[in-house]
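Cross-check.
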Amino acid sequence: MSKFIFEGYSFSNGKARFAYSFEGGQKFVEEVEFAKSNYQYDEKLLERALFLSFMLIGTSYYKTFPTSDVQVLPGQLDQWQASFFNTVYQEGLSQFAFENDIKRGALAWFNASAQLAEMPVISYKDRGTLALQSGGKDSLLTASLLNKAYKDFSPWYLSSSDSHPKVLDELGKPLVLSHRFIDHEALSKAKSDGGKNGHVPVTYIVQSLALIQAILLGKHKVLVSIGHEGEEPHAMIDDLPVTHQWSKTWSAEQLFSQYVERYVSPDIIVGSPLRGFSELQIAEMFVGECWEKFGHSFSSCNVGNYKQGADNTDLSWCGNCPKCANSFLLFAPFVEAEELKSLFGGQDLFSLVSLQETFKGLLGIDDVMKPFECVGEIDELRQAYHMAQAKEQYGQLSFGVPSSNFDYKAKYPSQDIAI
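Predicted model, tokenized:
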């Protein structure tokens, strides 16, 4: 395969269609269905948001035969946009590049068109909040804090099947559902032809689709739920930091917000009200605000819940993956042992032989690489472990864990998005 081509996109009757191809080869078409309403949305505003999703969703198909040669047929990029998409397709695909032994120079390179006129500003006077939901601790905490503050909002969930986590029905608000239909048939064909696979900046993709849904419903605020995370790289490829969580970092949130301000509307806010908190403090807040209601119906386990097309109505924990180990570390300081173990079939995960290497990666022991998952920082998780051990309710890991002075109540930079 040679050049990757961004063919075009369209929107009709609540459905977006995004098309891509490799020059002389494989074609891909993805569709996304959005919740409809009688709101008279601004078509120019929607067009700008669709273009952003179009460019970001492209990562899902570009990765099959990565190349530096890319072409965007519908529209031109100015210098800032070209730099933005270069960052997405390089830093956002860093894990993919690492796992497939690809150098930064072999990844996509977008060129700016000469002297493009500045896009006219589109003012957006509608008001309302769309809060992204997954069934995990962070998004449920945001929803609970909004309810506690008597703030109106619409919970939104992006599904890849006909189901959604039933815990979202307990939020007390009508759930807004969108459906993403990845072109699995074309991806399977690409794989059979020798195509590659790997992680893409999915948080960016989901945020962009939430932005479209917000515009269709007349909302001006899109709330994601991300704490201070993703800042600790797993490895390096020359000057390229390798991280699973690039699109969840503070720099990525700022970049996305700047794109929306410059190219969609300065009146639309996209960001996380939890950004200023550590993952450990978010766990403590979740226990205080949400555990009684959601403690036995939420989950952060990808293995058990979030496979494409899977029925995830009832969320569960597999009890044997990095996300489960990470969650056990984060909650152990704040939840009684028997209560926490009940989520994992009565098991104390610290005592599981099968998880010892995983815990070593999470805690930075014996040079075991940190798992490619959305997990806490090493010092943060070491602090969590020692806080849990101080309760004298949990088993011990089979290896020593260095002490940590991590201040889990420290405040981190954020957009200061008020709930």
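The chain has a mean pLDDT of 96. The two ends are 48 Å apart (CA to CA). Passed to J.P. for a second look.
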